[in-house]
Design a protein that fits this description.
binds phosphoric acid mono(formamide)ester; five-stranded parallel beta sheet; alpha/beta; EC 2.1.3.2; 310 residues; 9 strands; Rossmann fold; transferase; 11 helices
Length: 310
C-alpha cells in the first residue's frame, strides 16, 4: 500500500503487519540500537495545520530513527496565512522532494485529497473529526503488549465520541482485530448516525465498567464544541469521568488508556492517569515505534523522490 489514510480500509493482514513490524522494531530498540539506516536518502514532511505535541514529535523521532531527513511544516508562520491553498502548499513541498507527507488538518478528508495531488506516500495524522489511524495502531499495539491477542477482548471507549477521530479509528481497527468495542457517551456527544460503526453504544458507564478489559478515556474537545452541547463539567465528571472509585471496580488486569492531551480532573482523575493501570506514558513511547513501522512499510521498498540511496 502507498498511503495510510484510515483504519476503516485497513485489512486484518495489513494491521497485523504493522503491529508485528512494530514489535520487531521495539526489540531492536530494546537492544539499545537507536538508529537504523533503512530510510537514508528519503525525506518525510510533517505538514501540520492543527496543533500537536505527541503525533508531530513522534513522527519526527520515528523518521530520524530510520535515518530519513525530516522537514517540519507548521501552518502557523507559513504562507498559508497569506491564503495559499492546501494543494499549492503540497505541490511546493513535493517540489522539495517529499517521499512521504504526514498531514494533520482540521478538515475531514484533507489527507485523501492530498493523496490525489502528490506522488509520495500520504499518512493521515488526524483529519478533523474523521480518523487518526496511527493513534489507533499505537493503541492496539499497547493493548497487545499488555493483554496479548485482542480477539474477544472488551474495549470500552468513553467520552466525546462526536468529535473524536481517535474513537472512529479505534472502533474500526479493534473490530478488524476481533475485539468487542462499546462506546459510552452522553447522547449529545455521539454522532447522529452511527451506521457503519461496528460497535455497541451504552449511556451507563458503571454497567459496562466491570466487563471491560480496556477503558479508553477520550478528551472533551471544548475547541470543537458549542457550549450548549455540554453539561456542566461537574455533571460530566460524575457520569462519565474515570475516578479512583470507578478504577477500583474494573476487573483485575484491566488497563486505562487515554490518547492525550488530557483534561485532568474532567474525563480522568489525576490519580487514575498516574496509576499503575494507566498506559498513557507507554502509549507515547509506543507511538514512536508504531510510526517507525508505518514509515518503514510505506517507504522502504519505494524509490526516493529525488536523490537517495546512491
Ligand atoms: N494523541 C494525539 O494525537 O496527541 P497530539 O494532538 O498531541 O498529537
Amino acid at each position: 500500500k502507498r498511503h495510510l489514510l484510515s483504519t476503516a480500509d485497513l485489512s486484518r493482514d495489513d494491521a497485523l503487519l504493522v503491529l508485528d513490524t512494530a514489535e520487531q522494531l521495539a526489540r531492536v530498540s530494546d537492544r539499545s540500537i537507536k538508529k537504523l539506516p533503512t530510510l537514508r536518502g528519503r525525506t518525510v514532511v510533517n505538514l501540520f495545520f492543527e496543533d500537536s505535541t505527541r503525533t508531530r514529535i513522534s513522527f519526527e523521532a520515528a523518521a530520524k530513527r530510520l535515518s530519513a531527513d525530516v522537514i517540519n511544516f507548521s501552518a502557523k508562520g507559513s504562507s498559508v496565512s497569506k491564503g495559499e491553498s492546501l494543494k499549492d502548499t503540497a505541490l511546493t513541498l513535493q517540489a522539495m522532494g517529499a517521499d512521504a507527507v504526514v498531514i494533520r488538518h482540521g478538515a475531514s478528508g484533507a489527507p485523501h485529497r492530498l493523496a490525489t495531488w502528490v506522488d509520495g506516500s500520504v499518512v493521515n495524522a488526524g483529519d478533523g473529526t474523521h480518523e487518526h489511524p496511527t493513534q489507533a495502531l499505537l493503541d492496539a499495539f499497547t493493548m497487545r503488549r499488555r493483554l496479548g491477542d485482542l480477539d474477544g477482548r472488551r474495549v470500552t471507549i468513553v467520552g466525546d465520541v462526536l468529535h473524536s477521530r481517535v474513537a472512529r479509528s479505534n472502533v474500526h481497527l479493534l473490530h478488524t482485530l476481533g475485539a468487542q468495542v462499546t462506546l459510552v457517551a452522553p447522547p449529545t456527544l455521539l454522532p447522529v448516525s452511527m451506521d457503519g460503526w461496528p460497535c455497541e453504544v451504552s449511556y451507563d458507564f458503571d454497567a459496562v465498567l466491570p466487563k471491560s478489559d480496556v477503558v479508553m478515556m477520550l478528551r472533551v474537545q471544548h475547541e470543537r464544541m458549542n457550549a450548549s452541547f455540554f453539561p456542566s463539567a461537574r455533571e460530566y465528571s460524575r457520569r462519565y469521568g474515570l475516578d479512583t472509585d470507578r478504577l477500583g471496580r474494573m476487573p483485575d488486569g484491566a488497563i486505562v488508556m487515554h490518547p492525550g492531551p488530557m483534561n485532568r480532573g474532567m474525563e480522568i482523575a489525576a490519580d487514575v492517569a498516574d496509576s499503575v493501570r494507566s498506559t498513557i506514558v507507554e502509549q507515547v513511547t509506543n507511538g514512536v515505534t508504531v510510526r517507525m513501522a508505518v514509515l518503514y512499510l510505506l517507504l522502504s521498498g519505494s524509490e526516493p523522490a529525488i536523490g537517495g540511496d546512491k
